[in-house]
TrEMBL record:
Protein purpose: Plays a role in transport between endoplasmic reticulum and Golgi.
Superkingdom, natural source: Eukaryota
UniProt KW 4Fe-4S keyword: no
Name by which UniProt lists this protein: Endoplasmic reticulum-Golgi intermediate compartment protein
Protein keywords: Endoplasmic reticulum, ER-Golgi transport, Golgi apparatus, Membrane, Transmembrane, Transmembrane helix, Transport
Pfam families (alphabetical): COPIIcoated_ERV (PF07970), ERGIC_N (PF13850)
Region (Disordered): 356-375
């Protein structure tokens, strides 16, 4: 009984075989079929190779959510060169709550304002990248992928020159509250004041005013090597002593998660405005560089994603099966059309023979000869 049950089960399994074997004596191979098969194999190899590159590629996924972290501090990273001596200018931050943040962590370094040739070339390259980023927004994804976790790039050394430095490089970082504020560089050192703060500008000669400046780096949050910020490489030159430069910055908290780095940083957008201070003409204000920033309530989560392996295998099977089916149908249709045309015009195997149309057989009957198409 067990043997009978096994035989029945084996018979049932054989009946369910979706891939029946055809004896080789019933298989006919042709030159046209071999050519189509060769083309199909080459096409499958090329498409599978390209699909592998698609599988290796990654893309950036952007998600938006409300930023619930309002108690932490915001780090401001600064590297600005101003065309004035260090003893004449001061930098600090005044936030919306009228809280002044001292710039004790900022360093004032006397330097020359003119750049050496190699750094000038790098600045021109950086400005060209900034122009392309404004047009090709997808390039930002390339920068995110190239970002690396590690220490900030080494600060550039002062230029060795016998002439006395005529500019001041302000660089370093500060921690401020996560509220709107104003980071500014103006005449005189800042001093505390009950109603805010003030700068000692009375002791500085008006002839020494020159707020031409170059922003080598300005970022918010954790410094990530490989990222380029909107104001990096910006240079402003003015011939007027009384000149106000204003930058209006909107900061967006960003969580970056790639295969190389996982960090919490900040992106920002900026609009610029500058004008000459002329009280006689009604243009009032204070000469200096003012960066007014505001923090967005939305946070962007940027994640690098990759095609899963199962999806790659499904697409690969689709390529192989689709090419097999398509080339088989095309080969069958072309063969059918060729047969019809050859039969209609009596070409190839359907061509009439030159022998007489009929011959007499042994039994006295006439036997037709030659090839004829079925009508």
């Amino acid at each position: 009984m067990r043997r009978i049950s096994r035989k029945k089960a084996l018979t049932l399994v054989k009946e369910l075989d979706a891939f029946p074997k055809v004896p080789e004596s019933y298989v006919e191979t042709t030159a046209s079929g071999g050519t189509v098969s060769l083309v199909a194999f080459c096409l499958m190899a090329v498409l599978a190779f390209l699909e592998f590159f698609v599988y290796r590629n990654t893309w950036m996924n952007y998600e938006y959510e409300v930023d619930k972290d309002f108690t932490s501090k915001l780090r401001i990273n600064v590297d600005i060169t101003v065309a004035m001596r260090c003893q004449y200018i001061g930098a600090d931050v005044l936030d919306l709550a009228e809280t002044m943040v001292a710039s004790d962590d900022l360093k004032y370094e006397p330097v020359k304002f003119e750049l050496p040739p190699e750094r000038k070339l790098w600045q021109m390259t950086l400005l060209h990248i900034q122009e392309r980023l404004r047009v090709e927004h997808s390039l930002q994804n390339v920068l995110f992928k190239s970002a690396m976790k590690g220490p900030a790039p080494a600060q550039r050394e002062s230029d060795d020159d016998s002439s006395s430095p005529s500019a001041c490089r302000i660089h370093g970082h500060m921690y401020v509250n996560k509220v709107a504020g104003n980071f500014h560089i103006t005449i005189g050192k800042s001093i505390p004041h009950p109603r805010g703060h003030a700068h000692l500008a009375a002791l500085v000669s008006h002839d020494s005013y020159n707020f031409s400046h170059r922003i080598d780096h300005l970022s918010f949050g954790e410094e990530i090597p490989g990222l380029i910020n909107p104001l990096d490489g910006t240079e402003k030159i003015t011939a007027d002593a009384n000149h106000m430069f204003q930058y209006f910055i909107t900061i967006v908290p960003t969580k970056l998660n790639t295969y190389k780095v996982s960090a919490e940083t900040h992106q920002y957008s900026v609009t610029e405005r500058e004008r000459v201070i002329n009280h006689a003409a009604g243009s009032h204000g204070v000469s200096g560089i003012f960066m007014k920033y505001d923090i967005s309530s939305l946070m962007v989560r940027v994640t690098e994603q990759h095609m899963p392996l199962w999806q790659f295998l499904v697409r690969l099977c689709g390529i192989i099966g689709g090419i097999f089916s398509t080339t088989g149908m095309i080969h069958g249709m072309v063969g059918y059309v060729v047969d019809v045309v050859c039969c209609r015009f009596q070409m190839g195997v359907y061509k009439r023979m030159d022998a007489p149309p009929s011959e007499q057989g042994d039994d006295g009957q006439f036997v037709p000869t030659g090839s004829y198409c079925e009508e």
